[in-house]
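@channel sequence for tomorrow's demo:
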Amino acid sequence: MNTYPTNLTDSQWNTILVILDDNRKRKHSLREILNAIFYMLKTGCQWRMLPRDFPKWELVYYYFNKWKWDGTIEEIHEQLRKFTRKKAGREYSPSLGIIDSQSVKTTRSGGLCRGIDGGKRTKGRKRHIVVDTMGLLMAVVVHSANIHDSKSAPFVLTELKYRFSRLVRIIADGGYRGELVDNTKKYLGWILEVVLRKDESPKFQVLPKRWIVERTFAWFESYRRLSKDFEFHPETSQAMIQLAMIKLMLNRIKK
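structure tokens (generated this afternoon):
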């Protein structure tokens, strides 16, 4: 098999293998399957156009779909985030989160949950995420782009419930003002702090902590599969984002 830059190194694979806890013998190893998935994610190629030295695309897609729905991708992501934070000398659970959304175009082939974000003039979907102060993903929900951030934020924030024992405060921009601030405190017990630009400031200004979530969105640009939302199901888009973060964390902690 050819060696691609996206292939897992031995140490990266061993880290994932501990999480998978699956040593069953197969014709094609799970490492080969993951290498194919990461190749597709990085290059943006279609499933059917995976190089032939990978396992058949049908098998690769089968495992991707299986892991998406049974929670395997999410479990790998969660364990790697804890490991990354621990290696950086942080607690497993962050005490601060930053929330924001990114509107992205979808393709002409269609898909579920699409709409027009009038402010961004984008027809497609929103990637709504919460990250910690390292820029690591805490939660992601992909939804129609026509839903305002303040209306869809509860779905993202609910994903954090019961998962982060030390979480106290979440930073947001002006799009999250209104009753969401009170409801977040009332129903979830967290402080939603809206950080605004000063009236006298220039049009562009780096705000404390707010730049961290923007950097995470910039990381996504390294993966061509995320250049648009190519997926039919929003859940598939969420899995692709989690996979991108998995590879980013693996590259950070293991060579």
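heads up for whoever presents: The helical segments are 10-20, 30-43, 57-70, 72-87, 149-158, 179-188, 210-220, 234-253.
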